Amino acid sequence: MSKVKVWKDSLSGDELCSDDYPHKEIFDGAGLEVQGKYIKKGDRDVVNLVDEFNLNEAALSKKDFMAWAKKFLVKTREQLAKDQADRVDGFKKGSTKMVKFIMGKFDECQFWTGSSYDLDGSLVVSYVKDNGKDVTFLYFLDALKAVTY
After folding, report:
1. Which residue range or ranges hold the TCTP domain (predicted)?
2. By the number of CB atoms within 10 A of the CB, which of 29, 85, 122, 131 ranks highest?
């Protein structure tokens, strides 16, 4: 039986995604880009990652997102300084690029929390790429803990 890597939010413990989905590291290793897609469930279309990981949509304004990002990035940086000091510089650089990218696409984005709906934990950001078929999810990778089952 093959093992599956599941990424959990280090703050809330919520499972947010797994390596069962096409994924790659982005933004100097500070981000994880995961490809989701629409699936048929009963008589409705749902996004597979939202369905499988019980993600909850969070309605945020730009101001709300920036306030969340400032607090979240400081907490994540402080945790990295304790646990993985060699990642702090890469995280600072990459997470800044990632926040700028999200702000540039803000009107196209949806924001998600894990199943606990903990807004102090990680937010997951999704948007539809140019092809209009697949949904791209962005995660702050340094705020996740990988668990293999």
Report:
1. 4-149
2. 122
pTM of the predicted model as reported, rounded to 2 decimal places:
0.93
60-111, pLDDT tens digit by residue?
999 999 999 999 999 999 999 999 999 999 999 999 999 999 999 999 999 9
Strands 23-26 and 124-128, sheet pairing: unpaired
**What local confidence, expressed as pLDDT, does residue 85 receive?**
93
Nearest Cα to Cα of residue 137 among 3, 12, 18, 14: 18
Q: How many domains does the chain have?
A: 1
| Cα 25 from Cα 139, distance rounded (Å) | 10
Q: What is the DSSP string of 13-54?
A: --EEEETTS-EEEETTTTEEEEEEEEEEETTEEEEHHHHHTT
| Token reading at 8 | 């959990």
Please report, for the domain that includes residue 30, its CATH number.
2.170.150.10
